[in-house]
Amino acid sequence: MIIVNVDYIPGKEFELLGIVKGCTVQSKNIGRDLAAGIKTIVGGEIKGYTEMIEDARRVAEERMADEARRMNADAVINVRYTSSSVMQAASEVLAFGTAVKFK
Question: What is d(CA 64, CA 95) in angstroms, rounded to the nearest whole number?
Fold first, then answer.
């Protein structure tokens, strides 16, 4: 599955199949939350949350690609990611794009 964040693939003609998306909501455990709280006092990157968001993006992208495969797509173009907080220490990550079939 080709996944790109542009609206074309050089040398490929395709038909649009529709929007596909994948999302996940993830949180870290209480130990990581305590460490993050301390980090907010002293400053610096909160690596536990960075890892959580990276994992969430990967899961959301995989779910988006799975939805595209169910549509028999060859690629997903114009991919975007968004995130939001759904509750304290829990974030939703959404990946979405347009599924296409090569001609």
Answer: 6
Span 57-79, average pLDDT: 98
Residue 32 and residue 78: Cα distance in Å, rounded?
34
Calculate helix-pair angle for 47-70, 30-42, nearest 10 degrees: 130
DSSP state of 103: -
Question: Residues in the chain, how many?
Answer: 103
Fold of 2-102: Translation Initiation Factor IF3 (3.30.110)
pTM for this one? Answer: 0.84
Domain range annotation of the chain: 2-102
> Strands of 2-3's sheet, edge to edge?
2-3, 75-87, 90-102, 14-27
